[in-house]
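User: Batch of two.

Assistant: Item 1 of 2:
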Amino acid sequence: MLKSFPHYKQMDLMDCGATSLRMIFKYYGQQVSIHKIRKLCQTTRNGVNLLGISEAAEKLGFRTYGVRLSLEKLKEVELPCILHWNQNHFVVLYKMRKGKYYISDPALGLISYDEKEFSKNWFSTKELHAGLSLLLSPGPDFYQMDADEPLLTLGWSKVFTYFYKYRRLFIQMILGMVLGTLLSLVAPFLTQSVVDIGINGKNISFINLILIAQVMLFVGSTAVSFIRSWIMLHISTRVNISILTDLLIKIMKLPMNFFELKTHGDIMQRMADQQRIEGFLTGNTLNTLFSLVNMLIFGSLLIVYNGTIFMVFIISTTLYTLWILAFMKYRRELDHKRFKIASENQTYMVEMIQSMQDIKLNNAQKQKRWGWEALQAKLFKFRVESLALSQYQSIGSMAINQIKGILITYIAAKAVIDGDITLGGMMATQYIVGMVSDPVESLLGFMQSYQDAKISLERLNEIYESEEEEDIRKDYLTRLPENKTIELRNLTFTYYGAGNEPVFDRLNLTFPAGQTTAIVGASGSGKTTILKLLLRYYNPDEGEILVGNKRLDQIDFGLWRDSCGSVLQENFVYADTIERNIAVNDDLPDENKVQNAVHIANMEDFVTNEPFGLSTKIGTAGKGISQGQRQRLMIARAVYKDPDFIFLDEATNALDANNEKEIVEKLDRFFEKKTVIVVAHRLSTVRNADNIIVLEKGKVVEQGNHIELTAKRGKYFELVKNQLELGN
């Protein structure tokens, strides 16, 4: 009998390629972390292509061969192999037998297909009876590779530390639970006394006394329950905030390119996962502990009352437990499916709301609504599956409980008839059985919640295991060099993603301190990429960036960004006041600096015309602003920092000629003694630069000032001749 093929669930929407490769590593006996494979595959938010998977596999010791195969040819290849599935997914084919094709699908699990279903999913088109495959076999270096499966960086031990500071409150809760158990323990004896002594003895005074005692017990247990609920609210709220805060801290430590590779939905759903962990620890864990204490005490009582009933209870509880556990695997699969659909839905909704103006401009409302309705159909189908699973589980468990109740009632009634126990004893026994049954259901609920929390912990670790922007083991410079000249030496950079060509190949540039350098060139020449490398959005593949005589990667990230003011094409306007949008990083904005920034950005008219001046709310929470106002706001934000380095990317392209002229003149004075790099197409923005660099396809083709480059009548002249009005 063949052993079961290893399977991993993909954690993200676009992780199928990396996860498929991880399963093949596991099949050949190697544990490789998904993070390492994802990085080598160069997975982006759009996923990965077969070339990326192939390159990653070869770097880790495999021989690979990407080929389009027919069904007949596929039967001759070595398995397992990776298949391109439904033109938007990757799966592993690990076995073929008697017309059945066995697939390990990162999204759905281990599945078998007949030939017709398999062909439908694998073939690219109905006309082309072949599918795309990546064949893999271990090379000589494969078995020399060291296992590198990482340990969880957010394990249960760390999660429990969040609760340590509330240990005194937990002690109070445990004492309350013990008191509640003792109060409950008295109840069956009171019930038996009412029947055997009060009713049989026709002693109404005794019955009144017992009823008063039951009222007091009710008051006491209710008070204990209320106090416990308030303590639990206090603990759970604080712990929830602590976990979420630490998660946000971790997210904010991640490199900028992390957020280009993840969808909004993936990140938001992971933040929701921490609530499941917190709920499990604050709710289910303590309730289960309380239930176990009850089960031990009342179980012992049940043995004393009737050993036969105790045995019936044990056997039925065992069957009940096995029935519930049988569904755990399917619940796990449904949870992964829920995460995937919820992530897709959230991402789609965010994108649709953010792009509503474009949707309306292009009359695409119907198409986008249909896309949303398709997602809702998937969500409905998932809910049907969840309900069906829940009903199957409930039917079996209810049947077992009902049979148990009937058997126990019969045995207890027969014992009363035979004179083995009294009627009061029977009622007490029924009460005890109820008190023991509840903890069993609570314990099984705990197991299901533990499974959910464990899945959530695994997903959270996708964030916690990601490399942070700053290496905590490295000592960074906390002061900038005196020399503010920036140099790019032999710099090579390629955008993340398999098959991408290098943007720069051994590029050398110098941006002198205290001078303004302009970069011009056609779209796609690498102008904006240079600014993003300097702002540390990305790290170069090779070469180095120097500030003075120090490498940029040796300088503290916070120090460097404090020293840089930037106006990029995608700067964000916050839902806040104009003042807070200018002084983003100051809790208490400096009034003089704000006024100076407003003056240089030529925003006086804009601010004066607003009803509340600088306190006017803009962004999604307030007034919408024009593109020109937005650019002036970004210039004011950069000026407010009064930085040593200024990076401008088409900073005035949305401004009218008058505004642009005034702002450029004010900026020229502000630029004195600062290292400035300007990316622009407009002549008015670059003509006063000390040096102009002309880029073409990532290479420097010309360099000089405006007069020198115009006289050459070369690439620079071609770029700006329409603005020069010099003709040919």
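Item 2 of 2:
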Amino acid sequence: MAANIAGVFEENLQSAIQAAKVLVVGAGGIGCELLKNLVLSGFKDIEIIDLDTIDVSNLNRQFLFHKQHVGKSKAAVARESALRFCPTATIKAYHDSIMSPEYGVNFFKRFVIVMNALDNRAARNHVNRMCLAADVPLIESGTAGYDGQVELIKKGLTQCYECQPKAAQKTFPGCTIRNTPSEPIHCIVWAKHLFNQLFGEDDPDEDVSPDTADPEAAGEAGETALQVESNEKGNVERVSTRSWAQSCKYEPEKLFHKLFHDDIKYLLSMDNLWKKRRPPAPLLWGKLPDAVAGSSKNEKESTLKDQKNWSIAECADIFAESCRNLKNQLESLKENDHLVWDKDDKNAMDFVAACANIRAHIFGIPQKTRFDIKSMAGNIIPAIATTNAIIAGVVVLHAFNVLQDNLENCQTVYLRPKPTHRNQLIVPEKFLNPPNPKCYVCSPKPEVTLCLDVNTMIVKDLEEHVLKKSLNMVAPDVILEGKGTVIISSEEGETTENNPKTLAELGILDGSILKVDDFLQNYELTVTINQRLVPKDGPEFEVVADPSQLKPKEEAESSTTANGAGDQDDDLLEVVEEEDTIVTDVDSKKRKTDGPEGSISKKIRVEAEEDDVIMVV
């Protein structure tokens, strides 16, 4: 079946469609719908890129894929399937990451339109910057459950993807995760931290060991018996969980005994924790319950595997198998490398599901199926095929306007789960959103103020946590202005000796200016250092795009916390993401009324396609 658009569109649009070279980034739920729409609308020159392979869980909504395609490249199979709709189209597929160096500014300049169908913020940030650098219109889209959004990003005309700050992610107190979990999500977060400690990139802030510094555990004297014992022994060198696990060769029984017996006994010794709550019950490897109410042994065999309840004995078996497999995966990597948790990796998901359920059982918390845990750990709001289809259709309508240079008709469009007072489910904005003049990405002279303690922040953390994770760079180069000192180089090994040094050791002090350049993104940023002591239990650093937002120390300490504590209107709708929190863009202080009843028209910003959102609160 070939696309025949003669008589459907006016002649100039037909010509523009057939001559246009377009790039689709992402071949998931929206990507499949989008690719189908493009070929049936007459687009002849399409390139599509996606790093993922097809999983069984994709088949209920990504209709270009079928059971025989499981394990294959999404981009390649999407191309083959789309060509059946229009064999005369030219479609090129890339099974790769759009963030790879091969796809630089010149790659993006080859296209008249780029269309995002992504499921993570890091890639969205990167494509946003590449399209700004190449001056190519970007049509951004996303869905989360029944919510959806499409917006045009055009350099100098509209706000970019990073013009509006994202809300801080929802977190849980560390002492709750380590000592007194009370909800399944606490056990799941703990299990993910454990995965990172054993197999991933270990973060001291994610320690899963019992927390003796928990204020609730302290007695009348202000400290626990364990702390007293520790103080009497003096400074005892602690062995990391990773080192200990390696020393015992990741033996499942030893790991189990430490995590679910010894550490629990350790917690029980903190008497104050259990005066008003149920104490945990340590487990022994050889004495595990092999059947519980609702366990898989009592269920029909027809029950879907992921939706069966596991007994604790089954959890232990799955824990043991996943430990052995993850150990083998880790050993196959080069030295000092680590695994990255992925909800679609069977061993990683099995490990987290088993550990979370075992810990839940210990603390008397209801257990969850693997399916439920995957949804919570992977931050999923169930994807709705219809939502993807509607949003993909709006993306193509925006593409038509871009090709006809009718950019003023490309207002941001929101798909809502419930009709407005005007009985609208699809709600367009009245005007294009102009660029934020303070944006540190698309403003003429991007700059930020970085608040931190130069005496404690080391160069490696500046690169990994600030520049890459917080400021979304890929391969930054950093020079200290005035002295010309190269602090960080994207050339491997060139500045490795700087990694463990503090900023102060390299002459970076209060008021210092860093010139940061990311060659791949064609992005330059000026960073002004603001010396500030790190508050206890506070963030290690703060990035401020508008220096006028800097507050005196006294005011900053009493202001709203990063986690959103403080005054908020009740109608704030927040979509929480675990690794890179994304939030619906509801500006409650600038709400508008557009009906006789003065009803509120919410502006919902959905920035996840289907796989990176956990809940709406």
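The first strand starts at residue 21 and ends at 25.
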